[in-house]
């Protein structure tokens, strides 16, 4: 087997695992994708991984589309195709099975217990991702203050996310002006 085929196989296997163990949606997949692509195989740097996640956020569709970017960086178009199919296959199979049996098992105490047990883990993983992606992006005091303010406004006051993004952009412009260093 050539090195290129081994790389495609490794991409497929890696993103099948991400798709299978990424309980809780795309944000729960981010730590798994980061561990595989940055820490284990060194396919991407931390900044390239952050760019992949950012790209996934600005494009329509799920966060898991970051797998496409990673696959492309590793093995071009075939890598993108393999990583994308692999990351979505477990969800597709599980959803097909659940659609068939969900109404029968949704009230089952074991099913409820599994769901309640997985939820805190997902929250912790998302928080871990937010911190690991945010740390390299914060370079000044005012950025830390914007993070805190946006968090409070989003959580407590339920301010529209679009307005929060526009406000943060305005703060970035203002604090980037000459003489506005904090």
From TrEMBL:
It is found in: Cell membrane. It comes from the Bacteria. InterPro entries: CHR_Transporter, Chromate_transpt. It is a multi-pass membrane protein. One of its GO terms (molecular function) is chromate transmembrane transporter activity. The chain crosses the membrane at residues 12-30, 51-72, 78-102, 114-133, 139-155, 162-180. It holds the Pfam family Chromate_transp. Its main location: membrane. GO terms for cellular component: plasma membrane. The keyword Transmembrane applies. Keywords: Cell membrane, Membrane, Transmembrane, Transmembrane helix. Belongs to the chromate ion transporter (CHR) (TC 2.A.51) family. This is Chromate transporter.
């Amino acid at each position: 087997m050539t090195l290129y085929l081994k790389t495609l196989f490794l991409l497929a296997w890696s993103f099948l695992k991400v798709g299978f163990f990424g309980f809780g949606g795309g944000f729960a997949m981010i730590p798994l994708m980061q561990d595989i692509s940055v820490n284990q195989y060194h396919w991407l740097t931390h900044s390239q991984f952050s760019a992949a996640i950012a790209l996934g956020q600005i494009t329509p569709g799920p966060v898991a589309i970051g797998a496409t970017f990673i696959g492309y960086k590793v093995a071009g178009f075939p890598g993108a195709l393999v990583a994308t199919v692999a990351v979505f296959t477990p969800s597709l199979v599980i959803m097909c099975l659940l659609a068939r049996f969900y109404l029968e098992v949704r009230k089952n105490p074991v099913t409820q217990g599994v769901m309640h047990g997985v939820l805190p883990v997902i929250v912790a993983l998302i928080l871990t991702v937010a911190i690991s992606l945010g740390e390299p992006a914060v370079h000044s005091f005012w950025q830390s203050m914007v993070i805190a303010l946006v968090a409070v406004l989003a959580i407590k006051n339920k301010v529209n996310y679009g307005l929060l993004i526009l406000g943060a952009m305005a703060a970035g412009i203002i604090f980037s002006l000459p003489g506005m260093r904090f």
